[in-house]
Structures are given as structure tokens and as C-alpha cells.
Amino acid sequence: MQIHQLAYFVAVARTRHFTRAAEMTGVSQPTLSKQIRVLENSLGAPLFVRDRGGIELTSAGEALLPHAQRILIDVESAERTVHEVASLRRGRVRLGATPSLCDGLLPEALTRFHEAYPAIDLEVQEAGSRVLTRELSQGRLDVALLIVPLHSGDPDIETTPLLRERLVLASPVDADMPDRMDVSDLRDLPLVMFREGYDLRDVTLRACTAAGFEPRLAVEGGEMGAVLRFVQAGLGHAVVPSMVLATRPQLRATELVNPPLDRVIALAHRSSEALPLAAQAFKADLIDHLTTFGTGGLTGV
User: pLDDT tens-digit profile of 5-26?
Assistant: First the structure.
């Protein structure tokens, strides 16, 4: 039983005329008649009674008709759905991003993408780079914005570097802080530290170790929002991405030098699978967005 045979059968059932059914389906009348006979032979029962008074459905034809109509409707719906997805009129992007990116870069990027593709559903998971890498590997995310290099070493994850992000020292806006300071000067400051697993925690601790001292931790264990609120409350200072301070007038940024601190943001996905069309569109739109994203001292990679 073939789809085109069912289409011919339904056309004859509607018109009760082989010639008109052939015209409706765009084939010759002999071709249509032959395919109807093939269908009847495959089913083992006649579908039409042909006489001088016209064409009528047999009991087998009556039984087949609603099923054939349903199949043709489903096929048409499937073709339409695939076409809509291919045309990006439908689809879904399962996106992961680190908390700092959810707080800084992502809202504007998602707004821009949603305006361009309003019918594409966006699902966002916020987590650290290690968790996001695992979620990608297990197929629960399509793409993720995370920090490279990856610590997992998973060969199935492909990364596209997007930008190099400057890290700064966040302090209360009324704190007596210079515009620039060496990393070694953090030795004398109480720091608000991110929880275990945060790449910002690792970056800060490595920088302090390289400068020859153990940092003095006033508070530790927070997420991005909590860390910034603790800093604003005057509990200490924190090393954060410059972009997260763009919308926080209660905090000020001090540039860190000798050495400057930064990190590379990349878009990651599984290299063993082709990106879904919606995810490809998000990647292209994000890269285009970053060519004009200049807030917070970012420079392209």
C-alpha cells in the first residue's frame, strides 16, 4: 500500500469517476486505474463496484476510506511541519548558559533572536560550564554558552570561541577604590567568593596563587546574583565579568592589571551530530550580534 495509491483511491471515492479523479491527481486515467487495481490486489478485496450506473464503494472500500483520508491528512501535516521547521517558522532551541552570561550577554541576544524568529521556542538552562558540558554530552541541550577551555576533555564537544571577556573587581559604588589595580593588591581586600564549580572562583584563586598569596574570603558559596548583592552590601569585593556591572549603578568596576584577567566565551555543541536548523539560526544570529556588542570592554576572539 503506497501513499499515492491511497490518494488515487480517495480521489475516485470523492468524484465517483476515474477520469475526473485522474485529472484531480494529475495522472493519466490508465495510470490511476492500474494503481487502484494494484491496491485492490494488495488488500485482497475490490474497493469499487463498476457498472453502467456509475461507481460505488464496496464494503471494503467504505471501511478503507476514513483510514485513507486520515493517512493523507497526516502526511500533509507532516510535510507542512517539516517545511515550517526548515523555513524556521517552527522549532526549538535548548540553550545552556553560565549564570554570568544569563545575567549579562544573554538577555539582549535572546530578545534579538526572538524578534527575528518569534515562532522558535527557547528553553534556557542556567548552570556552570562543567554541568553544561555534561548536559550537551547527554543530549539534553542543543547548544551552550560556556567558558573554554573545557575541563571535561570530552572529544564529542565542539566549541566556537565567540569573545574574550574582561574580568574586573566589583566594589560598592561609594568604596574608595582606584580605577586600576594589580592582582597582587587583592591580598589586602576581603573577597566575596563564588561557590565550588564556578569558573570565576577557579580564575580568581589561580590568579591569587600566581601572585603569591592566599585570598582573604569574607563570604563564599554564592551564585552570581548573591555575590553581587553581598558586594553591594559592603561585605567584600568580587572578581566578576565586566558585563554584569553594566546595569548595576550600585557597583563600580576596578580594572585588574599585572596581569589582566579575562576568559574566553564559546558556543559549544556535540560534534557528532548536525545542529538543528533552529540552533544553527541561533548560532548565526548570536555571532552577528557579537560583532556589534561592545559593552563592558569586550574584544572579539
Answer: 999 999 999 999 999 999 999 9
Q: Which of 6-20, 135-149, 287-301 has the lowest mean pLDDT?
A: 287-301
For domain 3-86, say whether CATH 1.10.10.10 is its number: yes
Domain borders along the chain are 3-86, 92-164+263-300, 165-262
Q: Is the pLDDT of residue 94 over 70?
A: yes
HEC secondary structure over the chain: CCHHHHHHHHHHHHHCCHHHHHHHHCCCHHHHHHHHHHHHHHHCCCCEEEECCEEEECHHHHHHHHHHHHHHHHHHHHHHHHHHHHCCCCCEEEEEECHHHHHCCHHHHHHHHHHHCCCCEEEEEECCHHHHHHHHHCCCCCEEEEEECCCCCCCCEEEEEEEEEEEEEEEECCCCCCCEEEHHHHHHCEEEEECCCCHHHHHHHHHHHHCCCCCEEEEEEECHHHHHHHHHCCCCEEEEEHHHHCCCCCEEEEEEECCCCEEEEEEEEECCCCCCHHHHHHHHHHHHHHCCCCCCCCEEC
Tell me the average pLDDT across 209-238. 93
Mean per-residue pLDDT, 57-76: 92
Fold of 165-262: D-Maltodextrin-Binding Protein; domain 2 (3.40.190)
Give me the architecture of the 92-164+263-300 domain, per CATH. 3-Layer(aba) Sandwich (3.40)
